[in-house]
Amino acid sequence: MRVGTSMQATGASGATKKKMTGYVGFSNYPNQEHRRSIKRGFSFTLMVAGESGLGKSTLINTLFESKVYPGKDDNAAAAAAAALGVVVGSEGAKTVEITSVSAEIVENNVKLRLSVVDTPGFGDSINNDQAWKPILENIESRFDAYLAQENRVNRSKIVDNRVNALLYFIKPTGHGLRAIDIEFMKNLHNKVNLIPVVAKADTMTPREVEQFKGKILADINFHGIQIFKPVSDQFDDPETIADNKAIAGKIPFAVVGSERLVERSDGTRVRGRQYPWGIIEVENEAHNDFVSLRQMLLRTHMEELRDATDVSLYETYRTQKLLALGHVQDNTVFREFNPRQQLEEEERVHAAKMQKLEAEMAAVFKQKVQEKEGKLRQSEDELYSRHKDMKGVLERQRGELEDKKRRLGISDAGMPVPAVGVQQHDGAQPAVQSKDKKKNRFF
Amino acid sequence: MASNDVQDYVGFDTITQQMERKFLKRGFNFNVILVGESGMGKSTLVNSIFASHLIDSQGRRAAQEVIRKTTEIAPVTQTLEENGVRVRLTIVDTPGFGDQCNNEGCWVPVIKYIKDQHAAYLERELKPQRDRVIVDTRIHACLYFLNPGSRGLRPLDVEVLKRLTEVTNVIPVIAKSDSMTIEERTAFKRRIKEELAFHRIVVFPYACEDDSEEDRVLNASIRELIPFAVVGSEEVMELDGKLVRGRRHGWGVINIFDENHSDFVHLRNFMLRTHLSDLVEVTAQRHYEQFRTSQLRQIKELRAQQAAAAATGGPHAMPTQAPPQAPVANVMQHQPMTQV
């Protein structure tokens, strides 16, 4: 395809923007990618953290509409404990454990390998100073495992276990973040996509929820904590931008989870919690932000979460780790290879070389010329002085010859001349003679 | 018959009215301490129970405010009057309790405060010339706020409750219980009762041998309800044409006075209408006496030590006849550190 005559460089890449006159078909590429990724399947690792009793497991089960965490019913646990004759919970979990549950869920032929990592025992002890450390270590060990796989010789099968998102459950106190929340978030916000969630939103009235969210955001900004926010870029359509803004405005999400169905006054059955004073519905946007959370986590921003994990969080970790290990950054490998540029460069180098040679030769030549000139001048001077000498000699000889001529009585015209005392040979005589001659002539 | 009654009527049954009159004149003190993490609704509950804005929430308001590093003690005293009966009510709030990452020892200031009040009373009692009526600053009731939804008592709860029940009457309360459905609430209460029994933590009301039958029945019904699942509110709103205190959600309105919604009414009645004098009396008879006994024993031992030292070492004799207050005070200072 011939490129048009006007070659304007547009955009940072320097590529020209050209309008095509017919349908080419490369716009089908995303569909091809889509088919391939469906075949491959996706993996998503979600971590939940927060004190016990905030409804983490219930929320997970509600989000994925399946019993990812079985048997989280109090009754079931208590019954089991009673059967064993043990009163559970008094000693509590003194350390933070990390438990992981994996499930493969299929929806519309899309396979999702979902892993949920729970952190029981977080924040339950008296001293919770180090409660966040096991969680951080777990996240970093997953990064390390990925790094090791990347550095293998055969990289065809890489299993991605990195944590894509961390839902942090905040207790609904109404007073902003607690010390343990701030500690946790400050230590983990640059290793994982943090999504703060206000647990048990049915504790608070709508006005209290708004105030609480405001206080939480103020605390987050004050401490410089980075949380995951859905951002729109210039390529999105206005509807997506509006959706993203709506979702971002609800962060942190105030959610309620429930695995049970309850019957409403009009007879329909919905997932919710039944109180003597009313029913709170999980999927009612007016009652809580569960729908927005699900939307962001699963329906719109799952890929962005995975991307952010891979591109920014993991890369930052990798850079730090490798630099810490002593690798040095060598930037010369980043120079671009452009043949024309290289040729030009070579030419320039060559021309420069030539110029140098020329200059040298010119200098040498000049020097030699100067030497030769000097020599010639010298010989010229010699010749001149010799010439002068020889001329002097010749003059004398001629003087002598003329004397001789006069003595012999030959005049200038070749006629004999009377002898007038020609026999003197000194120089003065001829001169007087000539003067006299001249005198004579002029009178 | 009738004539006998009129002539044989002695009239000492009017003692109750005489006591009442005295009470009305004198008024009485009632001191409550609130122990629980920030954000549990302590201030709101107290303001709801006494139907007036007594204390302000001590929670952190702005992001710039620093999280408290230790538990503070913030007593607020006010005089309330109802039907001619005056009460000097002191509410002691404990901001900072359980709020840090490391909560080791966050109960120490609380226990110390309670013991200090016992000590102050003992000091005044031991004075040769004491006031006719000693101002009673001893803590009569401690409302301990439990987290709703946890799997029972947390390690912090166990530690603190063990220590609190030794020095004062503890009434455990489930804070913000509107986050639990009725079944969850029942299960949680059962769990808490089991764990309290397991750790041998004795909460108020205590069983006493000389309880009358109706007392026993009443106490048994109270014990069924413990811990009280409460909801507090300072907002008054209209519900079915009546003005009630409640919380308005988008999906329902909680009426804190409704027995089906919360145990607020039971708690209030228990604390104020039926067991108020019990709380004061038990504090004086049980906790204060325990404290007094241990203190006097210590003083006696200290005096014995000093006497022994004076007898054995002449030049090194320590002053034996120190005034009663001083050793009490000295021992007081050591007390919280060793026993807490």
TrEMBL record, chain A:
Keyword Cell cycle attributed: yes
Keyword NAD attributed: no
Protein name, UniProt field: Cell division control protein 3
A single cellular component GO annotation: septin complex
Organism superkingdom: Eukaryota
Region spans: Disordered: 389-443
SUPFAM superfamilies referenced in this protein's UniProt entry, alphabetically: P-loop containing nucleoside triphosphate hydrolases
GO terms, molecular function: GTP binding
GO BP annotations, alphabetical order: mitotic cytokinesis
Family: Belongs to the TRAFAC class TrmE-Era-EngA-EngB-Septin-like GTPase superfamily. Septin GTPase family.
Keywords: Cell cycle, Cell division, Coiled coil, GTP-binding, Nucleotide-binding
All residue ranges annotated as the Septin-type G domain in the record: 40-324
Basic and acidic residues bias (residue ranges): 389-405
Coiled coil: 340-382
TrEMBL record, chain B:
Family annotation (Gene3D superfamilies): P-loop containing nucleotide triphosphate hydrolases
CDD domains linked to this entry: CDC_Septin
One Gene Ontology term of the molecular function aspect: GTP binding
Domain Septin-type G, residue spans: 26-298
GO biological process, one term: sporulation
Keyword Nucleotide-binding assigned: yes
KW Nucleotide-binding (keyword) present: yes
Pfam families, per database record: Septin
Keywords: Cell cycle, Cell division, GTP-binding, Nucleotide-binding
GO cellular component, one term: cleavage apparatus septin structure
Family: Belongs to the TRAFAC class TrmE-Era-EngA-EngB-Septin-like GTPase superfamily. Septin GTPase family.
Descriptive protein name: Cell division control protein
Gene name per UniProt: CDC10
